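In response to the reviewer comment on reproducibility (Comment 2.3), we provide here a single inverse folding case reported in full, input and output, so that an independent group could reproduce the run without further information from us. The structure tokens appear first.
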């Protein structure tokens, strides 16, 4: 296997990625937090492309700006400066309602802390977002069953989160994300709360999303396993993109 290292230009010039139009395009992104009179430059002139049906990772130490960057890409926060396009749509020009629609239709999320509703069963956790999208009951039931089957948790459908292991909870979260059939899945430290063996299984599952369903996967992590698994690794330091490694061969 070959690894091509790309050192991004300091002015945030275009970073080459594999063939095809990028599903996510980020240009000259800056984000500042203002805290007690201090300006924190959490994302500093980042330009990136995320190609379709690949696994990309954003890595870097704690505090390097990974979560801030993924939230800006998800449209959960608005950048101080710079541009984000998701599937050709310019996020900056969309109002809150249109951004919510874009998120619901095209993006799935997986979080470090799983983000399941504690009083609902696994099946209900997967079903609720589908209902919010206005999906009818029959289709919802089919989607929930299919998603649970896909992550290997059919027999845990009626368990609540506290009746599931961490790895199982994360599998429910993945099922919830994929039930809506999004083109893009964004995961922030998806293995962060799991032991390495369980993390490995979650990573295999995320990998299969790319291979079997053609999902564009973006994982933010400081887990070396994630770096080893990704097709493309972007490294952040102090909010700046310092290196991109593209695997091939
Ligand atoms: P990472 O996910 O890589 O650990 P973050 O994006 O969470 O990094 O944080 C990047 C920088 O921004 C850090 O210095 C952090 O302390 C700061 N930061 C993150 N969120 C906020 C916030 N809501 N208010 C102020 N500073 C923040
Ligand atoms: Mg983080």
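Designed residues, in position order:
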């Amino acid at each position: 296997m070959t690894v091509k290292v790309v050192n991004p230009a300091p002015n945030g010039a275009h970073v080459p990625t594999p063939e095809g139009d990028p599903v996510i395009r980020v240009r000259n992104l800056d984000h500042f937090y203002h805290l007690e009179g201090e300006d924190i430059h959490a994302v500093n002139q980042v330009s990136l492309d995320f190609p379709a049906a690949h696994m990309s990772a954003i890595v870097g130490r704690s505090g390097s700006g990974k979560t801030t960057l993924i939230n800006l890409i998800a449209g959960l926060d608005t950048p101080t400066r710079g541009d984000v396009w998701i599937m050709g749509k310019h996020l900056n020009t969309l109002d809150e309602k249109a951004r919510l629609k874009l998120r619901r239709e095209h993006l799935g999320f997986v979080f470090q802390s799983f983000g399941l509703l504690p009083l609902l069963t696994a099946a209900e956790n997967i079903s609720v977002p589908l209902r919010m999208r206005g999906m009818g009951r029959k289709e919802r039931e089919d989607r929930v069953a299919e998603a649970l089957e896909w992550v290997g948790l059919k027999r845990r459908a009626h368990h609540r989160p506290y009746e599931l292991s961490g790895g199982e909870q994360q599998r429910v979260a993945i099922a919830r994300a994929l039930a809506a059939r999004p083109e893009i899945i964004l995961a922030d430290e998806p293995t962060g709360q799991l032991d390495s063996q369980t993390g490995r299984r979650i990573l295999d599952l995320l990998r299969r999303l790319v291979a079997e369903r053609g999902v564009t996967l973006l994982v933010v992590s400081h887990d070396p396993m994630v770096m080893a698994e990704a097709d493309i690794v972007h490294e952040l330091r102090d909010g700046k993109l310092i290196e991109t490694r593209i695997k091939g061969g």
